[in-house]
Amino acid sequence: MANKPVRFGILGAAKIARKVCRAIADAPNATLSAIGSRSVEKASKFASDNGLSAEVKIYGSYEAVVDDPEIDAVYVPLPTSLHLRWAVVAAKKKKHLLLEKPVALNVAEFDEIAAACEGNGVQFMDGTMWMHHPRTPKISQFLSDADQFGQLKMVNSIYTYAADSEFIANDIRIKPDLDGLGALGDVGWYCIRSILFAADFQLPTTVLALPNPVLNESDVILSCGSSLFWDDGKVATFHCSFLSNLTMDTTAIGTNGTLNLNDFVIPYDEKEAYFFTSSKSRFNELATGWKPVSSKHVVPTELSQEARMVGEFSRLVKEIKEKGSKPEKKWPSISRKTQLVIDAVKASLDRGSKVVEVGQ
Amino acid sequence: MANKPVRFGILGAAKIARKVCRAIADAPNATLSAIGSRSVEKASKFASDNGLSAEVKIYGSYEAVVDDPEIDAVYVPLPTSLHLRWAVVAAKKKKHLLLEKPVALNVAEFDEIAAACEGNGVQFMDGTMWMHHPRTPKISQFLSDADQFGQLKMVNSIYTYAADSEFIANDIRIKPDLDGLGALGDVGWYCIRSILFAADFQLPTTVLALPNPVLNESDVILSCGSSLFWDDGKVATFHCSFLSNLTMDTTAIGTNGTLNLNDFVIPYDEKEAYFFTSSKSRFNELATGWKPVSSKHVVPTELSQEARMVGEFSRLVKEIKEKGSKPEKKWPSISRKTQLVIDAVKASLDRGSKVVEVGQ
């Protein structure tokens, strides 16, 4: 039994599902059992486009996937507005849940999802892949080093990409009935997660969304920014946009050290990622140069971050299935905190950039 | 006459003056003629500490320097609150003026300085050294490339350093009667300049200082941030602080390209500086990596950026002295714009983070 892989079903034939299909194939403890889409034709096309094994079951509905007793877990990359419904249905059918981000339209919806998972004893995890790259714990180690990094004072995070005109006109991520959070949910999610990660997941007390967000004609966010504040004086800012060249920068500054990342969500190179740190940086005697300068740290990885995500999720599922363990609460807790900040930023934007308290 | 170097006098024995002494020695068209401090002892000590030639005149007052008819230009690294007085006196004595930043406590003061310079036909330039590094025009070229960079959408700039307890207690940069602008004037100046540089010196329309700045007991800024807004939708943010590890990041993002700098004010290495650009960045087919990734551009320099600053200033002075040219207006114009933004950020902070229009 210990060698039985976790059997996955995928709900929806989204583009991101292609990447997760490969990740399920690469993860040693997972296997893809079924793909369900709104029609058998769409699901079949996805299967053939992605060279899926003939053993993968093709379903013409999402129901069929969650009803399949031979499936242990579902990966749900559906539009955000559909998360609540399908996540809850899946949990009630005792399917462990790997849910794409943003996890919900707001934290009230997420709490229903989390309650359904908890009530049915299934593992919840969101699809924030970079959390699982081996670079991430290395960075954590630096950020928690009281001597080399010190006390966190400031984080800035940017995630932008230049969507083409087809995306701006038709993508689900700019449709108010599908992904009402727009760029804030799609890429701002990652900025907020990186900020919370740097802050050791301590929630900010307040946020102030920056004025002048760019909205489309349906008032969906195409570009926005925000600042975040903690009671101990820490501050953070982020900027997320569909309207600028692909950029992924996170800078975290402590009293003694600085972290720089330029590809925090998806590393430039799948096989090795790097990050830059500097500690106790000073100028030389005449202030004509630095000593020390920043150092580059390279972190190779055999498995992609998404395969590691599937692997960690499957490990937890197997612990529950095979050893009767309880679901790991760290993952829904982190998702919830990210959603709480999203909600506060959205509320601040909706109130014309007033300071808003972050919920608990 | 064409080979006669510009004769400099320095007002004040500030630490930064040591670096500029060396720059004057290195610049081929400049020579140090005099150093004046509040006492002959202080000026003598500065001269011996810095191995100045015996030909450099030692004065026990600032007046003596500006009164010396054998001096063409003065470099003024005095505390900001003294700029107005001494800059105007120097201009009236027909001394060309290289003035440290921030140029004044506010733009009204700066306008008096600029008027005195214009009325007396002397060149004005502020001490923002990085403007003169050969890296700067290379970056300009990238930012103005409509294909490779496109239209500017966002700039983020950070300049922080970890001041020691002696600085926090006693440095002139945190004394309200000496440098009332604190970190905003000392390091925020550079952030604002880098943002204006990226925006081709187009002023933002409004600014919103971020809430919760850190002030000392005399209400001088130790750490603050701000956002800036242009009518065409461009946005910028900056963070400046005396309370965090030395960090100097500027990121500028256009519709087609991204610029990253990690040492924008003082390059890590005096002999060569670099910057990173990326253009039309995309993910690969499965979004498991980037193509293209960012490119590193290395710009060597024979002369330090401060020697190049002194050289360019001296070239302009010689044009005026030897050819009857008019002073170059670009430099006071850029200083004034930087000060206008400083003033707006300070006003926004003073009004509890209200949106403030930038003056003209």
Description of the structure:
2 copies of one chain form a homodimer. Chain A is α/β, with parallel strands linked by helices and 360 residues long. In chain A, 34% of the residues lie in helices and 27% in strands. Chain A is built from 10 helices and 18 strands. In chain A, helix 5 (107-119) packs antiparallel against helix 10 (330-350) and helix 8 (182-198) crosses helix 10 (330-350). The radius of gyration of chain A is 21 Å and the shape is globular. The first copy, chain A, starts with 5 loop residues before the first strand and ends with a strand. Chains A and B meet through helix 1, strand 7, strand 10, strand 11 and strand 12 of A and helix 1, strand 7, strand 10, strand 11 and strand 12 of B.
Number of helices of chain A: 10
Largest interface: A-B, 67 and 67 residues
Overall mean confidence score, pLDDT of chain A: 96
Assembly of the depicted chains = homodimer
Spans where pLDDT lies below 50 across 5 or more residues of chain A = none
Gross morphology of chain A is globular
* Strand and helix order of chain A: EHEHEHEHEHEHEHHEEEEEEEEEEHHE
Euclidean distance between termini CA atoms of chain A = 41 Å
How many DSSP-defined strands of chain A?
A: 18
Give the proportion of residues in helices of chain A: 25-40%
**Class from secondary-structure proportions of chain A:** alpha/beta
Strand content of chain A: 25-35%
The largest sheet of chain A is: 10 strands, mixed
Radius of gyration of chain A: 21 Å
Domain GFO/IDH/MocA-like oxidoreductase (chains A, B): 145-259
InterPro entries (chains A, B): Gfo/Idh/MocA-like_OxRdtase_N, GFO_IDH_MocA-like_dom
GO molecular function, one term (chains A, B): nucleotide binding
Protein name (chains A, B): Oxidoreductase
